[in-house]
Amino acid sequence: MRKVNRRLALVSAIAMSLAMVVVAPAKAALPTVRIEVGGLSKQIYIHAMLAQQLGYYKKYGINVVLTDEAAGASAEDDMLTGSVDFVLGFYDHNIDLRIKGKNTINVATLLQSPGEVELCRSDLKGIINSPADWAKQKGGVSLGVTGLGSSTNFLTLSLGAKAGVPQSAMHSYVAGAGTTFIAAMKNKAIDCGMTTEPTISAVLGQGIGYVLTDMRYGSLTKAALGGPYPATCVYGREDWVTTHPDLTQRVVDAMMDTTRFIESHTAAQIAAKVPADYYAGTGLDTYVKALNDELVMYNPTGKMPSLGPRSVLTIDGRGKLASGAWTAADMKNVNLRATYTDSFVAASARDLAKADKYPNYFSTGAGAIKS
Question: Nearest-5° angle of CA 295, CA 299, CA 300?
């Protein structure tokens, strides 16, 4: 009789356990935000993947899908058509799009300098010593950019215009970045080209190019361009941001937590968190050195520098006016204040403090988005 009772009790316990499994509520899926980047492995865009690797998107209650594009102009097109929600790209696109009547807005400024370098082929050393020498080359020069309509294209034309080089002497060539840029230089498809780390270190390490103009940070940026040039930011369509303030805030929270990580860790510690293929072309030591040298380009506050928008407009305007892409009236009438907001960054300090105190607050706690 005791054996029967034990069996009945066991069967009853199993049945209750199964019942509990069946009726247990399914875990709600995190809302998805799509972010596209014009080159995920570039150090200027390190926030996108670093936030993923650190688990910060989920920490703030969102699932982020990252997609990679060869150039920021392509990512911009995908954002405008609604294929993605945000772009991690250069702030200058927001000014250019606003002039074209397409309203986008920067919600977090991650770089206070562009991190770009104009490199030229090694066989041209002593022939091309500054952008002014582009005008002296027979037939002009082939200038590598990540894409037509990209920020590297904007800046290249600006460098030439600042040096008095006519548009007819500058021929933009889509060289991309990384292996495609290196191949374009090796094959002499380009004379000079604009790129970022880790491609800069790869070109210099292989001895196939030299630095013509360095715009990576601070005083270098000002000397090359004539003023500050805030660069990488998180931007999206203004109507999407307006109708999705909570999701936007969570993206900004993750980015600002990533900035805090960058500010509080060494280049080696940061590099240890990125995928190994990011430094496959240079080696880890070279990647770390390059990152360490340009850590100052990251913006610790996430806010737009006060002189930034006007300076970017002026710098890009040189090339845009010369090419006919912009008019003087465009530059005069564009509403720069509408191209960015610091409100989400300002609110992120509160959210980061809350997440520090209650680690699951935004993912599964009281601050989670209810389905």
Answer: 95
